[in-house]
Amino acid sequence: MSRMETIAPPRPQVSASARVESGSVKVRARAVSVFYGEKQALFDVSLDMPEKSVSALIGPSGCGKSTFLRSINRMNDTIPGCRVTGEIAIDGDNINDKSVDPVLLRAQVGMVFQKPNPFPKSIFDNVAYGVRLHGLAESKRDLDQIVETSLIKAGLWDEVKDRLSASGMSLSGGQQQRLVIARAIAINPEIILMDEPCSALDPIATAKIEELIDELKTNFCIIIVTHSMAQAARVSQQTAFFHLGKLIEFGPTEQVFTNPRDTRTQDYITGRFG
Amino acid sequence: MTTAAGKSLIGTRKPHLADSSFRVSLYVAGAVVVVVLASILLIMFMGGRQAFETFGLGFVWSTEWNPVTSVYGALPAITGTLITAFTAILIAWPIGFGIAFFLTEICPLSLRAPLGIAIELLAAIPSIVYGMWGFFVLAPFMADNVQPWLTELFAWLPPVGDSFFWFSAPPLGVGLMTASLVLAVMILPFIAATSRDVMLSTPQLLKDGAYAMGATRWETLTGVVIPAVRGSLFGAVFLGLGRALGETMAIVFVIGNATRMPDSLFAPSASIASVVANNFPEAEPGSIQLAVLLGLGFILFVVSFGVLALARLLLRQERMA
Ligand SMILES: Nc1ncnc2c1ncn2[C@@H]1O[C@H](COP(=O)(O)OP(=O)(O)OP(=O)(O)O)[C@@H](O)[C@H]1O
Ligand SMILES: [Mg+2]
Questions:
Q1: From ligand 1's centre to the CA of A65, what distance in Å?
Q2: Contact residues on chain A for B210, CB-CB shorter than 8 A
Q3: CB-CB contact of B273 with B244 (8 Å)
């Protein structure tokens, strides 16, 4: 996609806070703005998220975290009237380029939602869904294997291996959330987006998901939206703080939490607003 | 135990009059349905008893309908009813479903509301208007264009037994096929509007889940939305079927009103409802003819009930599978 060089807008100057030194960049956002109709929800966001690590997006409700997250797999395309400008590049390729098929893009960028959303199918078919859709299994054995390893990776195998044909809806909330994570990793994406994946879960289920995120980061680039400061601190390597549609601060998690550069970040993480 | 306000929490609150009278009126409303249903069934059966007694099982099973010799068998009318209703569903279902899909997923936002309203207006057209349209517009068109063409196209179809020849018949215009088409047009808006509502009710989260897996719109619809709302979609279809089984006015115009076993899909025929409508004015009180018509009403009731019950049964099995 070298054509991109000619059509992309001139690179805006990147502020120091938008750079993270460790690891190579997986997702690069430059001057990303998002509009819902006339209303602008995201203003000129630029940041680099490295591969094989967890980036957390935090900020008060309505500040545009989900909006930003959904522009990384172009889910915003499915919302009538929503418009994204700027450049988002995965491994250097601009995903907003005309030649990019959002359907193929989404096969490479998995997404986990706030509430678990298993399909009204069996546990097996839920995990097999994307594999079948994209023709990733060569045989039935192959498919069985993929489903099993995905469920193992998602830490759900032991709990469901005896009832793979039961409905995915029959699982508990925490199990359902791990099921949809298994569904997402079954097609071997490079990036996994998680939008408040634990907000509907109890502390034990949350701990399991966090453990899982920690393991998954050895293979995937994970971007997670969370309202829990503690969770961001526990699972992420870098943290981005959004406020009123703008990226205020982005840096190593430790630094953002212990020594924020911006007073708004300081106020937010110490609970003074939001 | 007392609250801060000093009121006791023990004991029961004074029952509210509004509450209990509301409950009673709900029970009454529920009971009315059952009573009306039962009394209709009973009256039809009592009225038709003479017919069942005279002809026995032959009333349902005999193909002979001859007012001159006072022999009445209902099978031709039952056959006509079932053929027209099911053919109509076969035609209207895919089209209605396509319209619903178009309206929910493909149609530009600005056109959705007007098109939706147009479809609901179609459903509000009185059936006699459909009947006249069928007779004056559709029937001649069928006779001149569609029937000769279909007859030729399906000439190779082997007949069922030696009495039913599918599409080979003189092009009369009126008949089973025209009636089915009119019925299809009539129930189409029902199926389209209900399926649209059902599809719109699918949680966005579920659709997002499919899109996020890299599914196209079509794959999302067929793989996730439809399985999720399958039951309600069947409901939409059976609502249409129920209407098609009992439709009278439109059918009387275009079915041809010949109470004999149809020998093709183009044959002039009759449905239970059309037979009753055609013969009711001449049926003397107390005559066997009147008993036959009431008996037919009873049969129609049972047929409709049976079809709906069957649908529910199939649905339940589907859900459990
Ligand atoms: N589909 C939509 N149509 C119109 N406006 C929207 C839509 N989705 C979000 N917005 C607006 O965009 C802004 C950012 O919303 P977004 O959902 O990204 O916030 P968020 O940071 O994820 O909030 P939360 O923490 O509550 O999930 C909000 O002002 C919201 O009202
Ligand atoms: Mg959100």
A1: 8
A2: 119, 129
A3: no
Contact with chain B for residue A188, Cβ under 8 A: no
**Chain B residues whose C-beta sits inside 8 Å of any chain A C-beta:** 109, 203, 205-216, 219, 223-224, 227-228
**What interhelical angle do B226-246 and B288-320 show, nearest 10?**
180
Domain topology for B74-286: MetI-like fold (1.10.3720)
Q: Which domains does chain A possess?
A: 4-269 (3.40.50.300)
Q: Where are the alpha helices (DSSP H) in chain A?
A: 4-7, 65-72, 102-108, 123-133, 140-153, 157-160, 173-186, 203-216, 229-235, 253-258, 263-269
- Mean of the per-residue pLDDT values for chain B? 88
pTM > 0.90: yes or no: no
Which of the four pLDDT bands, split at 50, 70 and 90, describes residue A167?
Answer: very high
CB neighbours of residue B115 within 10 Å? 16
Query: pLDDT digit string (tens) for A19-37?
Result: 444 568 999 999 999 999 9
Return the domain boundaries, chain B.
74-286
For residue B13, the model assigns a pLDDT of 65
- What is d(CA B88, CA B177) in angstroms, rounded to the nearest whole number? 9
Give pLDDT tens digits for B221-238. 889 988 888 888 888 888
